[in-house]
Write a structure and sequence with these properties.
The complex is a heterotrimer of chains A (258), B (350) and C (245).
Chain A lengths: L1 H9 L4 H4 L2 H16 L7 H6 L1 H9 L4 H10 L2 H13 L3 E6 L2 E6 H26 L2 H10 L4 H30 L7 H19 L2 H11 L16 H24 L2
Antiparallel strand pairs in A: 1-2
Helix pairs in contact in A: 1-8, 3-8, 5-8, 7-8, 9-10, 10-11
Chain B lengths: L9 H23 L4 H18 L2 E3 L7 E3 L3 H8 L1 H17 L9 H23 L7 H29 L6 H33 L17 H17 L10 H6 L17 H13 L6 E2 L10 H38 L9
Antiparallel strand pairs in B: 1-2
Helix pairs in contact in B: 1-4, 1-5, 1-6, 2-4, 2-8, 3-4, 3-5, 4-5, 5-6, 6-7, 7-8
Chain C lengths: L4 E9 L5 E10 L4 E5 L6 H8 L6 E6 L2 E2 L5 H7 E4 L3 H4 L5 H11 L4 H14 L15 H13 L5 E5 L7 H13 L3 E6 L2 H5 L4 E6 L2 E7 H5 L2 H6 L15
Parallel strand pairs in C: 3-8, 3-9, 6-7, 7-8
Antiparallel strand pairs in C: 1-2, 1-4, 4-5, 9-10
Chain lengths: 258, 350, 245
């Protein structure tokens, strides 16, 4: 599953990983907002914006092939959205790029614009999630003001998603090992239910036991956690670089490029 | 029904995020009073349950070429109460956005409102209104199905509204709206049927679990209930995944060309005034030296030299971007090779 | 710092009326290493839950003279730490560091104290280097050790462990054994593995079908072949006569 890959990368070490989660999160939000707010016909400037998240991915030692594969995997929805543009905007314009020039509809420009924006914003979020341990991200979000209950809920959900998925995978293997022929849809459901019954018995105590564990360790109502984030020299450096980069792009590059 | 960033403009995203954040702040304050270990553990497990259920696409029977998925908001609202239910579904949506990139970050506010807050609250109150005194009657199931259909329709109808307010989409809002409502009517019925099925199971096994006074009275020793929810989760995940289709989501279907109807004519002229205005706005305030418009009333034509010079600028720009990225990559490799040959002085664990 | 446990006529029935424990009376001295032995389904886990006050039965349980009831809940929480059988239920935080810190944090200790206790607990079980790992990245033995660490950080006087050596490979099992032996607290371990029990037990309580069958010095009880086999258990290797092997 994709998530297990992202989880793996988050436990590596690199200058990107060591940055405070809050800073990375805010930078990502800012970047996403800036890219989304670019005009619908701009393409060149989006490629300039791509440098930022790209650098984070490289510094964070995240394999680029994985990133692009992942972006392609999650793009069907946006591809459909993008392709709807050429249908609705048939205004013809001519485009020149270097030595080449040809005619194209505005709709196609918008299409590429959407795809480019999508790629860059996805690179941003993948950059954040694959260089930040989820628990640090949660702590950072908590410090940024997210309510404690939601932080607790996110933590528990994250913790037990993998348990559920693992169990489901085990069950699939178990079923596969004992299936020879396709015995009809009804039978499939019957088999699935039977296997799930045994999984059920195992899972039946989970929520209750978690509750017992929580109470056993003194939990009453308030969710408390230790935050490990801190702002230091590297954070200030990152903020400064991002600031300058964004400023350059917004003010100068927008004048020159599209 | 997850919206992506590209459907929204930044102001619209900001507004919806603020609304959602405000609502959540209010909800969590109320929830604090009833939260205890039992509830929290149950909410966590149900989050995983909803997640697994949501990951299953099933083909919609009446509409070839599309698929829907269970959202689960109404179910959570009926079992946990709208407040706790909304918190759980919000956490699911956030995880989907961050970890699975299903739904854009800026669209988080919209998604939380459309798929979380509206279905939970509207669904819950419709359910309570339609449902009769007793839990064991057919009326309960009708209540569930009605609640699902209506609340999902409302949530679905907000998507075109939010997109239109952003002015990014070229599709006319009326078309978008009608298609969204149509598709999600089917989704709502299915959601209702599945939710009713799960609820029926709960009522058969432990009728006391879903009481009328949900908030503050919920007790977690209902092993069978939670367990059966997990069963249904995995049944839907595994059994239905046999039917899982890679067809586009209902949302995409509404404003893209319908793949199975080749005679479908997309609307060409953009008569929506908002979108035209936004277009003009973009035209006036962004400089597009490369583009020469020959057949559009928007924009200006430039002279040939400016055009030629400008086109080289864009080439330079884009080339520059890619060269910089390549440079960063190479630099990183060099630095890494260098530090790999040096012995590492300290390895800190935590 | 240890505590004594006094259980008087404790009974408990499930919601549907089935009796789980009947009139259990046990006396455990402070600082003892106690094994709660019995076949599967004897009621060992249920009894552990009862001692810690998670289930409400009839009869009275006293920990260091303090009655186990809702009113004294806070005190009881700080005196007794329980490890449930499955580490996946014990470890519910995204990283084991947070899991181990959870207890002290709930006791409202200062941040520095919490950090110090967490480090100490993790070091005691030998997992400090893996502190930032999520539980799903740990092996079964590591998870078990982490579960114990989550209790140690609370510095309880009594520790209960429910089948701590289940699913462990020999080296992990030995590590857990080492840990149990060096723990200064009163330790109650529920197990059906007699060989494991023989390695550290001082006092044994045998229960079956929800009733207490025997209680006393562990060698006496565990080397009684008739007693062991009639309750689905066995005599540990080290107490078997060469004739019986």
């Amino acid at each position: 599953m994709h998530h297990s890959h992202i989880d793996k990368f988050a436990y590596q070490d690199s200058p990107a990983h060591r940055l405070d989660a809050r800073i990375k999160f805010l930078a990502m939000v800012l970047f996403t907002a800036l890219v989304i707010s670019l005009p619908p016909h701009s393409i060149v400037i989006i490629s300039l914006y791509a440098i930022g998240p790209f650098s984070i991915l490289v510094i964070g030692k995240i394999p680029l092939r994985f990133v692009f594969k992942h972006i392609i995997a999650i793009s069907p929805f946006i591809i459909v959205l993008a392709l709807s543009c050429p249908f609705y905007d048939r205004a013809v314009i001519s485009v020149s790029f270097g030595p080449l020039s040809w005619q194209i509809t505005q709709g196609w420009l918008r299409c590429f614009n959407i795809l480019a924006k999508f790629s860059v914003t996805m690179m941003c979020i993948i950059g954040l999630v694959s260089t930040t341990r989820f628990t640090d991200l949660l702590a950072g979000l908590g410090k940024l003001g997210m309510p404690r209950i939601i932080i607790a809920q996110l933590g528990l959900l994250y913790r037990y998603i993998f348990v559920v998925i693992d169990k489901a995978q085990h069950m699939l293997v178990s079923r596969k090992a004992r299936s020879l022929h396709y015995l009809g849809f009804r039978n499939e459901i019957k088999t699935a239910s039977a296997m799930i019954g045994s999984l059920f018995i195992r899972s039946i105590n989970t929520a209750e036991n978690i509750s017992i564990s929580m109470q056993g360790r003194g939990f009453e109502q308030k969710w408390r956690s230790l935050s490990q984030n801190h702002i230091g020299k590297s954070e200030y450096f990152f903020i400064a670089i991002t600031f300058i980069y964004v400023l350059v792009l917004e003010i100068f590059a927008k004048q020159l490029f599209v | 029904m997850h919206m992506q960033n590209e459907l929204l403009s930044v102001p619209a995203a900001g507004a919806t995020l603020t609304i959602a954040a405000g609502a959540l702040a209010f909800i969590t304050r109320r929830a604090k009073k009833v939260i205890n270990a039992d509830k929290l553990a149950l909410m966590g497990i149900l989050g995983a349950f909803v997640f697994a259920a949501q990951m299953v696409n099933f083909r919609l029977p009446a509409m070839p070429g599309t698929s829907g998925h269970l959202i689960g908001s109404v179910l959570l609202a009926v079992v946990l109460g709208p407040t706790l239910g909304a918190i759980v579904i919000t956490s699911v949506i956030i995880i989907q956005c961050l970890i699975f990139q299903d739904g854009g970050l800026l669209a988080l506010g919209c998604n939380i409102i459309n798929m979380g807050l509206i279905p939970c609250y509207v669904g819950y109150y419709i359910f309570k209104t339609v449902k009769g005194q007793s839990w064991q009657s057919v009326r309960t199931y009708i209540a569930v199905i009605t609640a699902c259909i209506v609340s999902l329709e409302i949530g679905a109808s907000l998507v075109p509204v939010q997109a239109a307010l952003s002015g990014v989409l070229l599709v006319p809002m009326s078309t978008f709206l009608i298609t969204m409502l149509g598709v999600h009517a089917i989704v709502g019925i299915i959601e209702g049927v599945v939710t009713a099925g799960v609820l029926g199971y709960l009522l058969r096994i432990r009728p006391d679990i879903v009481s009328d006074k949900l908030e503050g009275k919920y007790v977690l020793s209902k092993r069978a209930v939670i367990a059966s929810l997990l069963i249904v989760t995995v049944i839907t995940s595994m059994g239905f995944s046999l039917l899982a289709s890679g067809m586009p989501d209902g949302l995409e279907w509404s404003y893209a060309e319908r793949p199975d109807q080749s005679e479908f004519e997309p609307i060409i002229a953009n008569k929506n005034s908002t979108i035209a205005q936004v277009d003009t706005f973009h035209e006036r305030y962004s400089i597009m030296p490369d583009y020469t418009k020959r057949s559009s009333e928007l924009g200006k034509t430039l002279s040939d030299e400016t055009e030629a010079a400008a086109s080289w600028t864009s080439l330079a720009g884009m080339a520059g971007a890619f060269i910089t990225m390549a440079f960063v990559w190479v630099l990183a490799q060099i630095i890494r090779k260098r530090s790999a040959s040096k012995p590492n002085p300290d390895i800190t664990a935590a | 710092m240890t505590a004594a446990i006094e259980i008087n006529d404790f009974s408990y029935s499930y919601a549907d009326g089935t009796s789980a424990l009947k009139d259990i009376s046990i006396s455990i001295k402070a600082g003892q290493k106690v094994v709660l032995i019995g076949p599967n389904g004897a009621g060992k886990s249920t009894l552990l839950l009862g001692i810690a006050g998670f289930i409400k039965g009839s009869g009275k349980i006293y920990i260091d003279g303090i009655e186990v009831n809702k009113k004294n809940n806070k005190q009881i929480r700080s005196l007794i730490g329980c490890c449930v059988e499955s580490p996946d239920d014990q470890l519910f935080m995204p990283t084991i560091y947070e899991d181990v810190a959870f207890g002290p944090l709930n006791f409202r200790l200062s941040r520095d104290e919490v950090k110090a206790r967490t480090k100490q607990a993790l070091e005691t079980v030998g997992l400090w280097s893996l502190a930032d790992k999520p539980p799903q990245h740990l092996s079964a033995g590591q998870k078990r050790a982490a579960s114990i660490a989550t209790i140690l950080s609370m510095k309880p006087r009594i520790i209960t462990l429910d089948e701590p050596n289940s699913s462990l490979d020999p080296s992990s099992r030995d590590k857990i054994l080492e840990l149990i032996v060096k723990l200064p607290q009163t330790v109650i371990v529920a197990t059906c593995d007699m060989n494991f029990a023989a390695e550290f037990a001082q006092y044994a309580v045998l229960i079956n079908n929800g009733t207490k069958i025997a209680e006393g010095n562990y060698v006496q009880i565990m080397s009684d072949e008739k007693l062991m086999t009639s309750h689905g258990l066995e005599v540990p290797w080290k107490y078997r006569n060469s004739k019986d092997v």
